[in-house]
Amino acid sequence: MSENRCIYCNFKHPDNIGAEIYSGEYIPEEVMYGSEWSDGFEYAFLKQKNGYFFLVTLHSDNEFYSSDGDATAIKFCPMCGRNLMEEK
């Protein structure tokens, strides 16, 4: 397990998220949530909130009209394996 923070789990940005997993770039949350969902966008990123860590996925709904999202609590970065709970 790596103790170094990768770009996905550094949480240095104002909205406490890491880089977007599919692109490897930092995309602000308001840009992701404001996407034109009829184009079939999908985003995945790690978020730190209130001392907990989540893998968040946003994607077009079944009708490509708006978005659906999921947040799964995690303890380790899925990209580098670092134990995120050591930051609590």
Key structural traits:
single chain, 88 residues, three-stranded antiparallel beta sheet
Uncertain segments: none
Please tell me the overall pLDDT: 87
Strand order of the largest sheet: 1-2-3
Order of helices and strands: HEEE
Helix content: under 10%
Task: Report Rg.
Answer: 13 Å
Shape: elongated
Please count the beta strands (DSSP E, at least 2 residues each).
3
Class based on secondary structure composition and strand pairing: mainly beta
Percentage of residues in strands: 25-35%
Task: Please outline the major beta sheet.
Answer: 3 strands, antiparallel
Please, could you describe this protein's structure?
- The chain is mainly beta and 88 residues long.
- 6% of the residues lie in helices and 27% in strands.
- It has 1 helix and 3 strands; from the N terminus they run H-E-E-E.
- It has a 3-stranded antiparallel beta sheet with strand order 1-2-3, with no helix packed on it.
- Strand 1 (42-49) and strand 2 (52-60) form a beta hairpin.
- The longest helix has 5 residues, at 29-33.
- 14% of the residues are buried.
